[in-house]
Each structure stands twice: as structure tokens, then as C-alpha cells.
Amino acid sequence: MKALKTVCFKHIYVEKNIKDKTKDILEKFSDSEIIYIDNYLEIFGRKKQSFAFQKKNPSLILAKKNGKFLYPNPPYCQNFGFERSFYTSIILNCLFDCSYCFLKGMYDSANIVFFLNIEDFFLELEKEEQNGNFLLFLSYDTDLLSFENICGFIHKFHNFLSKHKNITTEIRTKSSNFSSIEHLKPLDNLILAWSLLPDEIIKEFENSTPPLKNRLFAINKAIEKGWKVRLVFDPIITTDSIKIYEKFFKKISLSIDISKILDISCGPFRMNQKYLKKILSLFSDLKIRTDKEMYHKIIEQIKLTFSNKILYSIYDT
Hints:
Elements: E1 11-15, H1 23-26, E2 33-37, H2 41-44, H3 51-56, E3 60-63, E4 71-72, E5 85-87, E6 91-92, E7 97-98, H4 103-106, E8 112-115, H5 118-129, E9 134-137, H6 148-151, H7 153-161, E10 167-173, E11 190-195, H8 199-205, E12 206-207, H9 212-224, E13 228-236, H10 243-255, E14 263-268, H11 273-282, H12 292-305, E15 311-313
Parallel strand pairs: 1-2, 1-3, 3-8, 5-9, 9-10, 10-11, 11-13, 13-14, 14-15
Antiparallel strand pairs: 4-5, 6-8, 7-12
Helix pairs in contact: 10-12
């Protein structure tokens, strides 16, 4: 990805009740216009916003989250063998612009929201931990690693998770920004999960994301440092020929030490129909290939290439 130094926000909206927590972030954007508001929904929740227009130059909103902090993991997502799994949304929206992203159907606004009352998230996690171990998806509504130079949320969660071993946490990413956390000590209960697709598909559907070689470089760095790393082929977007995926899997197997990978997750393109309908109404030229026969061929190729790894797959039968 482009260096995070290039990230800029013309406008930064700050909830008045959280401004005492904003100094470290605002210092990184001295040229931005700071606008104080009472509630982030004044900006984020406006009617008749254009997601596509805002995505070109989104604003940053610094806010306090109220209400729920933990949500049950949707049934169409993996649980990796855990009886209980949850996600949390500490950031809304993403730096990247993937064509198939459900956020375009979920939100009317492409502006980015940071919730800075992180201690309230921790309190909710501690309460849930009293009921036993569980899996937490920390990067559900965003790509958390891509923002780490700005917000430092992974550092804060790392410190928390080091004291709460019953909370296994996955941070899913397409970012190559591992350098922002490489000095942290790996934790048994913290997994970095890289989403990977062939370069041909990255170029077509994953606008502004790092190319495959950059992600593989970051994965190798993480492995060298002793982090738990998961490979994620999800969503698998099918192609006319299996050869693109054969080449893709071969490149991965030659680029990284697969024996040091924790496991592999894969699944087809799937989405809440309400979100999908909205996305297609906004981006009518979007064509996502989901051929079932080709999908099964790709799954078999994954099993063949990575035969010694645990494979978690959705809808592969």
C-alpha cells in the first residue's frame, strides 16, 4: 500500500465529549480543519449521502461509542472451532476501496469513524470473558492494521490481550503495514489473518490495496517475528480458468514457509441481500463471478497445495 504518511483528511470532526482523547491523533494532521460536534451521527448518519463520492476524499470522525460493544458473529462467517465468537467495531469504514465490500451496502457514508473510548470496549470484553473463552474478530468493519500508524489501536489491544488469555482475537487485513507492530511480542491469543487473492483479481476488485507480493512480504516478516498467521482466501472470486488460481497458490507456497502458517480459511463471495441490492444500485457495472463448479475446483486446488494445513471452509460441499 501507499505509505500511510500520505493519508490526509481535509476535515476531522471531533465529538466534544471525547476531545480529551484526541491529541495524539490530531497532532498527525496539523493541516486538517477541526470541527467540533455533539454526536458523530450528525455527520455519519446524514441522509442522502454519496458513498462513492465521499470515498474519494473521506473525512475522519473521532467519537465515543455508546450502547453495544460486542456482537454475535454472523452465521455466514467462520468460527474456527469456537463455540462462542463475536466481533466488535472500533473503527467504521476502511482506507481501501474493494468493489465487493459489504460496507458500501451497510453504510450511507464513506467517512471514517474512530471510537476512542477503548476502555469501554475492554470492560465489555472482560464481562464476556467471565462466561468462558471466546473468539473475537477485531477488524470486522475496517482494516485495522492499515490505520495503526494513526490510531495505535492494535498496540492497546495487544496490551489488553496479554492479560486476557481466554480471548482469542483475529485481526484480518489486506495491509502490508506490519512494520507498525513488528516490535510487539507475539501472543498465543492474537492472530494476524491476511486476505489473499490473485493479482489479476486484486487489480480488478481491490482498489488501493497492496499487491500480492507486498502482502506476502508482510506475512514473511510476521512469521519471522513469531506471530500466528492465518491465510484467508475469502471471498474466492471465480475465474474462467483454474490456471490463475494454480499460479497464485504456487506463488504463495514458494514465497512463504507454509509449515509456519497456523491454518487456512476460505469461502465464496456471500453477502446480506439487502446490502448487495444497494451496492448493485450504486455500482451497476459490478460483476462478481461466483461459478459454483469453478469454486469447488479452487477449493480442491487449495487442499492439494496446502495439504498439511488445517482448512476451514464455508459451503465447500
